[in-house]
Amino acid sequence: MCGFVGYVNQTDVPSDTIVKMANRIRHRGPDDEAYFNDDKVSMGFRRLSIIDLAHGKQPMYNQDQTKVLTFNGEIYNYQDIRKELQDLGYEFRTDVDSEVLIHGYDAWGPELLQHLRGMFAFAIYDSKTGEVFGARDHFGIKPLYYYDDGKTFLWASEIKAFLEHPNFKKELNEDLLAIHLSFEFIPSKDTMFKNVFKLMPGHYFIHKADGHTETHEYYKFNYDNIDENQTIEGDAKKIRKLVDESVDAHMIADVEVGSFLSSGIDSSYVLNEAAKLKPIQSFSLGFHNSKYSELSWSTEFAKEIKQENTPLTMTGDDYFDILPTIMYYMDEPLSNPSAMQLYYLSKGTRKHVKVALSGEGADEFFGGYNTYLEAKPFERYQKYVPKLVRKGLAKAVVNLPRFHGRRFLVRGAEPLSERYYRVNYVFDYHDREKILKNPDLNRDAGEYTKHIFDDVKGKDEMTQMQYFDINTWLPYDILHKADRMSMCNSLEVRTPLVDKEVAKFASTMPIKTRIRGTETKVSLRTAALSELPERIAKKEKMGFPSPIASWIKEDKYRKRIEEAFTSDVAKKFFNTDALLDILQEHINGKSSMQKIFTIYTFILWYEVYFPENTSADTISKVHRTDIDKIPVAN
Q1: 291 phi and psi angles, rounded to 5 deg
Q2: pLDDT tens digits, residue range 442-454?
Q3: Per its UniProt record, what NCBIfam families does this chain match (predicted)?
């Protein structure tokens, strides 16, 4: 696990720029650094040593030294690919997975990506053609960004590295503010920085010698092969085999591997399978004297399977004190409250191991979110009640006081692309009208992502929901925060359930093997019943709960938020009276936690990345990579 940076050379760029860029992301690779320069390109690399610790230095070269690689991630089937390449005559000097990438690209070009199973982002420079090739894994586990304003071309594992380049023009992409307020992330290639783009999951770019950049898709998850003949028991049997094999592949390392452990089925299942291979230490996070703490569940389960568990705790002060630093490491504003827990969990875990397994992906691939249960009632309502009647009912009740069924009637008049709660996850169009200072910034969030629903037009609503989550919520929220919060602590997190072989099977599952009545991810739970105690396999999903809603009501934290909501930054973008109204509503008992947190974290993020009278080369010195100075929980 590592971090890398690079740029196409320009005459006015100081030679030490590449080093400064790499140092910005030193947290991703504190073990080693190295650089490549010629008259066309500069490349930098920071390494976190996991496999073949004594070798595997990057940048890495092909056999005739004409291609140069920098790589972040793990290729779990690299030994099989290595054998294929050896049969083609390639010689290997190390036992690291990165070497199969440079030789594989030499042999197959972009077709190399069809061979890979893993989490990865990498860049390869071809000195013969002057081209730069960049690729990102199938689901976006590992990040890759590029800056392209038509004159300057940069790439890096994290956006913050661009701050050190003199020709990087740091500008807020204000047009996307409404989209961020809706989703809490940007569900497209765009970012909150102008001319900075995510390389999308399952894509690669080629930056040509003439300065033109083109992107291509090499993988797309789809539901084209759903098999209605599959059964819960049959799918559970296949899942058991898949999870066992995937965990085994994800355990490859020359350092000790640990595992995150919550109270739920996903991380428990992953830990249980890993423990069959070797003793493994798990790590869990909770809160002092809090109903939100899951430590009793996790520690009891670890004891049952005779594995060591390390409980970690955090307080409200820990949570709020670290928020500005979290926004720095996040690159873009992200208001998922669980990010802070994940930071402290990673911080504590890194004191013991370099690699940790985690259970992300099960809900998206196997149907674990409770909202998926809404699909059938809405489908029946829209099938049997004419559209004009539904619209009339919605119009009649929309302005009435709340009553049971009102929300269903209002949403029942909308198509799924507008109704699905992820689309207006935090603020809907009318909410944004109230808080945005510039009304011209408001946009239709449903229209912004409608093309994703169009990809699965004609499929049942639950399948459309899952497809949407796999293409938005999973890469831009779940995996984004997992990468940033672990890597800022120099910890590699591996997700055995976000895997192309697991996904390949999940794409064939019919609804009846994903949900049954009110039971979510029924096949996964059935698979787990043969491996885990029933109380774990059947446990209702809790997510990553925290007492933040209660903390916001405490004076010392409420005052921090009030100060932010009346700050100059808040006045720049928002109607501050409306922000204070939302805060007061929460104090009065109407839960507005996610709205409050989304605005608050955006303000903190803006203050970190766009401070007044601060240039790019001095920005956020307090948030540099010396993480030992950051306050942590005991």
Answers
A1: -70, -15
A2: 999 999 999 999 9
A3: asn_synth_AEB
CB neighbours (10 Å) of residue 563?
A: 11
Using one digit for the tens of pLDDT, what is the confidence trace for 336-385? 999 999 999 999 999 999 999 999 999 999 999 999 999 999 999 988 99
Q: At 54, is the pLDDT very low, low, confident or very high (cuts 50, 70, 90)?
A: low
Q: Which two tokens stand for residue 275?
A: 């423990």
Q: What's the angle, vertex CA 534, arms to CA 533 and CA 538, rounded to 5? A: 130
Q: Respond yes or no: is residue 488 known to be catalytic.
A: no
- What's the farthest any 2 CA atoms get from each other in the chain? 74
pLDDT digits (tens, 9 = 90+) for 229-284: 999 999 999 999 999 999 999 998 888 999 999 878 999 999 999 999 999 999 99
* Residues 553/586, Cβ–Cβ less than 8 Å: yes
Single out the catalytic residue among 2, 252, 312, 326. Answer: 2
- The token pair at 62 is 């092909």
- Edge to edge, the sheet with strand 67-75 lists 60-61, 67-75, 118-126, 131-136, 203-207, 213-217
Strand extents, DSSP E, 477-592: 492-494
**Do the strands 67-75 and 41-47 form a parallel or antiparallel pair, or are they unpaired?**
unpaired
> What tokens were used for 8?
């196409």
CA-CA distance, 572 to 566, in Å (whole number)?
A: 10
As a whole number, mean pLDDT of residues 592-620 equals 79
CB atoms within 10 A of CB 93: 11
Average pLDDT, the chain: 91
The angle that helices 323-330 and 479-487 make with each other, rounded to 10 degrees, is 110
Helices 265-275, 295-304: axis angle to 10 degrees equals: 20
Cα–Cα distances in angstroms (integers) from residue 457 to residues 105, 162, 385, 416, 494, in the given order: 36, 39, 21, 10, 33
Please list the alpha-helical segments (H only) found in 286-400.
Answer: 295-304, 316-321, 323-330, 338-350, 362-366, 375-384, 387-397
Count Cβ neighbours within 10 Å for each residue of 350-359 and write b for 16 or more, e otherwise: beebbbbbbb
| Residue closest to 362 by CA, chosen among 372, 353, 352, 354 | 372
Asked if residue 259 lies in contact with residue 358, where contact means CB atoms within 8 angstroms, the answer is yes
From CA 276, how far away is CA 272, in angstroms rounded? 7
**In whole angstroms, what is the distance from residue 522 CA to residue 36 CA?**
51
Prediction pTM value: 0.93
Helix, strand and coil in the chain, % to nearest 5:
45, 15, 40
Buried b or exposed e, range 251-286, using 16+ CB within 10 angstroms: bbbeeebbbbbbbbbbbbbbbbbbbeeeebbbbbbb
Quote the tokens at residue 469. 């989550």
Query: What 3-state class would DSSP assign to 244?
Result: helix
Cα separations in angstroms, 418 against 131, 445, 452: 41, 8, 12
Bridge partners (DSSP) of residue 492 are 355
Distance of CA 173 to the CA centre of its chain: 20
